Amino acid sequence: METRSFNILVLALLTVPFVLAMTGVQAQLSTDFYKNTCPNVESIVSQVVANKFQQTFVTAPATLRLLFHDCFVRGCDASVMLASPDSKAEKDHPDNLSLAGDGFDTVIKAKAALDQDARCKNQVSCADILALATRDVVVLTGGPNYTVELGRRDVRISTISSVQRHLPKPEFNLDQLNSMFAANGLTQRDMIALSGAHTLGFSHCSKFSKRIYNFSPGTKTTIDPALNRKYALQLRQMCPLKVDPRIAIDMDPTTPRIFDNAYFKNLQQGKGLLSSDQVLFTDQRSKATVDEFASNSTAFNQAFITAITKLGRVGVLTGRKGEIRIDCTRPN
Fold first, then answer.
1. Which of 78, 160, 225, 316 is buried most deeply by CB count within 10 Å?
2. In this structure, how many other beta carbons lie within 10 angstroms of the beta carbon of residue 216?
3. Are residues 149 and 185 both part of a single domain?
4. Is 252 annotated as a binding residue?
5. Residue 265 to residue 281: CA distance in whole angstroms
6. pLDDT value at position 170?
């Protein structure tokens, strides 16, 4: 009996550090992190984002995509913002070359605006600016408002090699998607909700050309049967063979400038642009969630808030780790 009690005590003591480690990040991030150092951080960033959004709509999908590409590689640490003189930073990886410059520009402009406030100068991390700007573009396009946890610090390194195997591929199936998201503490429901962000933005013809031209080489089936045929023929007109594969096509063919649940309604009609989009509906394990979000925008918005909040906690640096970059494009 004494031996059993001792073993239980040891197990409990070993478990405590693990639990603290798992909850520590969330505890160190807070919605009022800058209340004493930069109390106007949210209003300053919001104004910059609004001005940038008025100049070009691309600001919205570009900023949203930039956050995802940052968080999924090393964590939400603004490593994707760092530039390299020899083109060996994250942003130089082929998977990141299509990131629109407006996302980077939004963060840089917000940083400059914050530095004009004496209280905020060199107080707010680039990682936190990106998180705030992402929330703002979601709201500006009609999406849900939500509080942003703050307190992230910026990493000092960024390597092109770190991108490999960390970002979803357009041909991923459900198992591959779930595995990659689970590695970042996100559930299948989180993954589907975050995929709903494809209601904004665009993709290039090269990312889905096989679905509309040579789905099954050597047979008469040249169009992916999961793809709505009429939609596929429209895509062929927009993406003809032997034309620049970098042509951009809206991910959402119905309301590409509004953050809504149309993405899920499109999946029900076979209008998911990428295989990794359409599989969410064709796979019975995820279909019910797609149907739920398609019929209930409130459920989607709530799930998105939960998912993007969890995404914002992935691999963050807090406390004395990392730094507050003076220039978002280079370490101090």
1. 78
2. 12
3. no
4. yes
5. 10
6. 93
Do 152 and 109 share a structural domain? yes
Residues taking part in catalysis = 69
Report the CATH number at residue 250.
Answer: 1.10.420.10
Element (H, E) at 210: helix 209-213
According to DSSP, residue 204 is labeled: E
Would you say the C-alpha torsion 83, 89, 95, 97 has a positive or negative sign?
positive
223 contacts 275 by C-beta, under 8 angstroms: no
What would you report as the CA-atom Rg of the chain, rounded to the nearest whole angstrom? 21
77 is in an annotated binding site: yes
pLDDT of residue 94: 81
Q: For residue 232, which of 259, 263, 253 has the smallest C-alpha distance?
A: 253
Q: What value, to the nearest 5°, has the Cα angle with vertex 129 and ends 123 and 298?
A: 140
Q: Which residues pair with 330 in a beta bridge?
A: 327
Whether 255 has a binding-site annotation, put simply, is: yes
Return the closest-CA partner of residue 110 out of 128, 98, 91, 89.
128
**Cα-based torsion angle of the residue sequence 95, 231, 227, 210 in order, rounded to the nearest 10 degrees:** -50
Dihedral sign from CA coordinates of 320, 326, 331, 332: negative
- Residue 158: domain span: 41-163
Give the chain's length.
332
For 55, half-sphere exposure in the C-beta direction (CA atoms, 13 angstrom radius) is 11
pTM above 0.85, yes or no: yes
Q: Is 198 annotated as a binding residue?
A: yes
Q: Is 175 annotated as a binding residue?
A: no
| CB neighbours of residue 92 within 10 Å | 16
Last residue of a domain, one of 163, 186, 203: 163
Q: What is the pLDDT of residues 269-327, one digit of tens each?
A: 999 999 999 999 999 999 999 999 999 999 999 999 999 999 999 999 999 999 999 99
CA 14 to chain centre: 34
The set of residues, in sequence order, having a beta carbon less than 8 Å from that of 173 and lying 6+ positions away, is 275, 276, 279, 283
End-to-end, the C-alpha distance of the chain in Å comes to 58
- pLDDT, position 24: 46
